[in-house]
Amino acid sequence: MNRAAIVAIGLTLLALQTVSAADQWPQFRGLQAGVVADDPTLPDSWSETENIAWKVPIPGLGWSSPVVWNDHVFLTSAISSGNEKAPVTGLYDDQGGVKSTAEHRWMLYDVDFATGRLRWERELWRGVPPYAKHLKNTFASETPVTDGELLYVYFGSVGLMTALDLNGKTVWTKELGSFGTNRNGAEYGSAASPVLYKNRLYIVNDNLTQSFIAAFDAKTGAEIWRTNREEAGNWSTPYVWENELRTEIVVEGAVKIRSYSLDGKLLWELKGTPLTSPTPFSKHGLLFLNAGYPGNVPRPVYAIRPGATGDISLKGDAITNDYVVWYQPVLGTYNTSALVYGDYYYTLLDRGFLLCHDARTGKEIYSRKRLSAEASGFTASPWAYNGKIFLLSEDGDTFVVQAGAEYKLLGKNSLNEMSMATPAVVRGSIILRTQFSLYRIARRQG
Amino acid sequence: MTRLLLCAAGIVSVSVCVSAQTPLFTPVGSIAVPGDMIRIDGGRAYLAAGNTLTILDVSNPAMPKRSGAYEFPDRIWGFSVAGSRAYAACDLYGIGILDVSNPAKPTLAGSYKTKGQAHAVEAFGKTALISDHMLGVAYLDISNESKPVLQGSVFLEGYSRYLAIFGSLVYAVDSPEGFYVLDAAKAALEPMGAVQTKDSNYGRIISIGVSDPSNATGPKIAVVSGGRALQVYDVSNPAAPVLLTTYATPGRGPRMAMKGRLAYVADNAEGVQVVDFSTPSKPRIAATYKTAKPAIDVAVVDSLVFVVAGHHFNEMTRRFEGDEVLILRQTP
Fold first, then answer.
1. Can you give the three-state secondary structure of B227-261, one letter per residue?
2. SS3 of B270, please?
3. Which helix (H) or strand (E) holds B4?
4. Does B176 sit within 8 Å of A296, measured CB to CB?
């Protein structure tokens, strides 16, 4: 073993000591569904000038979230060569789909965590987007995922799935096809992110041609299995639920919420909701499912215990059954995923209200609290640390609320720029994407 | 008998079908103009179509004339007129306040960007009440029209779709939850009463009429159209509205105007249907006026009935709108 090798091993060991797996943010909402371990170095307040370690411009448009591995911050974007209709904050409907005829470049960026310097960028696809999208959606809304060896990028808008090493070298690429998801006369685009679990990459693509969930070998991209789904549109990222009985993949759906075994067999299903964007997650031994559209009923939230088989839909007026531990018919949200922090289940309604329920029983702790009448819509999912909950509005304002049974608004941190992406929170820093920029928010030293 | 047979066979495209002691309609004038919604105020007809508000001089109903028009940046979902001002709810643009003192040249007096889609707007003194997707029912101080100030809002469970004001009472509808009554005279606009009407399935085009209690006996009623059927509420006690009944007109038209206890429904291909709510729990069709083209909206002032008719697809609103206004005289 030569001296260089010894040095390399030493550096690697040092890196492993200083950056543990818990210090990474490898996927959408991190490893704990938005909950971050307490860290006194994390900031409570910031502004465009306060507690900003760096800010870098990000060309194009994308509402994918940043992911972080060691000193890499990865981010995707789609850059148009034309003039596109700008996204508009707030909640609205009947806007139709926004079709672009301009050539786009689908991009991946690696930004240095410490300095914000662009380490490398890769153009992964070039072309005219084949389908329209919702005015607020982007052509790069799926968040990449990494295991620290490879980074997996999926652009549903063009059907591209690519694995790259952390130096930006493409390891494999697959084209899964792009599909329309026309609903009510409008294309809304795609958003469900890829999920990685034990060397397998899982993709859900619900569309009008043939909806599917598929598993791929993470190292080679080879398709391991594919199960067709009777669905026509879905923007919810699937969730791998490791519970006390088994590990399963849970997928929201407009027709049905379904859970699959790791080899693609249907385990159980539950009546779906018309529009699904939030992501399932688990805490306290329960799986939480949440979806709904403000203009529709029901907008259900379910807490599910492990071990279900078959159809576990509630019958008649029942609000529980053997597997549905609790149910709320109109608590579901349109875009934001819910947060369980401590004993409480927090709901951030898209129109700027926070509600709190007992996570284990569904009992209401406090009802709708309006964060601000001046707030615009909320799309980013909440996160929490140090006994505080953080709620990012589309205006770029992060409302800070005290966690616990009593609602108390503690403050508001403004970046004054449209924001819809859920940030990454890692190693004393918040990596927050706005419409045009990427920020690292961290307490100023000294 | 002959008249009844003709109506039943649909032989004539424009005809009058009446039952005993019901209104008769006589066409007195018409004008070709794009229109989706119509309001009448002070000898003028105001028509919204897409993002354009057009003003007609209808002081001589036999010879309506176009006076002027104004184009807003976004499509008009709802509007109201009060004296020299027209208030337009223009989707993501928010609301626009138009000075219509000179109908030949309406000018923008002010605007306010609401947080969501503005769907309807009404003025109450120096307050503008807005149906907004994000806020529910928002109320603005418009003392300074060039700088409206948000005073507050009342959150509605679903998407706020429409509101109308009668006296000081605001009647609001959201989808899919229900029907609300608020008092605009109170400083803090809080719902006095609300009815959750599950599965009401309101569309995006809604209208509300309230019976005029001065010339009718029985309870004060509010009629909401825009769902599967007209919904009739007893609003004698606005703090506790009661759903009395629902009634589906043949064309399921979403817009109507109310006069006394008669609801004039622009009933799509079925023309104008006049629904009599003298016995609110037992509505009946009192008269029908078959229009040659689908009836899109209707307004009633004194003895005149203004009907927007047509079948023109508007790309901006992605729905069919009218291309002419018919003016009918009603007797008695």
1. CCCEEEEECCCCCCCEEEEEECCCCCCCEEEEECC
2. coil
3. helix B2-9
4. yes
Residues in chain A with CB shorter than 8 Å from the CB of B198 are 297
The two beta strands, A266-271 and A310-311, are parallel
Of B116, B158, B198, the CB nearest to A90: B116
Task: List the single residue in A91, A370, A373 with the smallest CB-CB distance to B133.
Answer: A91
B116: contact with A, CB 8 A cutoff: yes
- Residue A105 token pair: 């470049």
HSE-up of residue B307 (Cα within 13 Å, Cβ side): 34
Q: Which residues of chain A does B133 touch, with a Cβ-Cβ cutoff of 8 Å?
A: 90-93
Which residue in A195, A98, A118, A182 sits closest to A152, CA to CA?
A195
Which residues are CB-neighbours of B8 under 8 A, at least 6 positions away? none
Cβ(B99)–Cβ(B106) below 8 Å:
yes
Kindly give the confidence (pLDDT) of every residue in chain A, 446 residues in length, as a single tens digit, with 9 standing for 90 and above.
455 444 444 444 444 445 565 699 999 999 999 999 999 999 999 999 999 999 999 999 999 999 999 999 999 999 999 999 999 898 888 777 899 999 999 999 999 999 999 999 999 999 999 999 999 999 999 999 999 999 999 999 999 999 999 999 999 999 999 999 876 678 999 999 999 999 999 999 999 999 999 999 999 999 999 999 999 889 999 999 999 999 999 999 999 999 999 999 999 999 988 889 999 999 999 999 999 988 888 899 999 999 999 999 999 999 999 999 999 999 999 999 999 999 999 999 999 999 999 999 999 999 999 998 788 899 999 999 999 999 999 999 999 999 999 999 999 999 999 999 999 999 999 999 999 999 999 998 65
Residues of B in contact with A377 (CB under 8 A): 115-116, 134
Rounded CA gap, A346 and A403, in Å?
9
DSSP-derived 3-state class of residue B175: strand
Q: What is the DSSP letter of A132?
A: -
ipTM of the complex: 0.77
Retrieve residue B282's tokens.
């037992």
- The beta-carbon neighbor of B176 closest among A88, A297, A368 is A297
Contact criterion met (CB < 8 Å) for B133 and A330: no
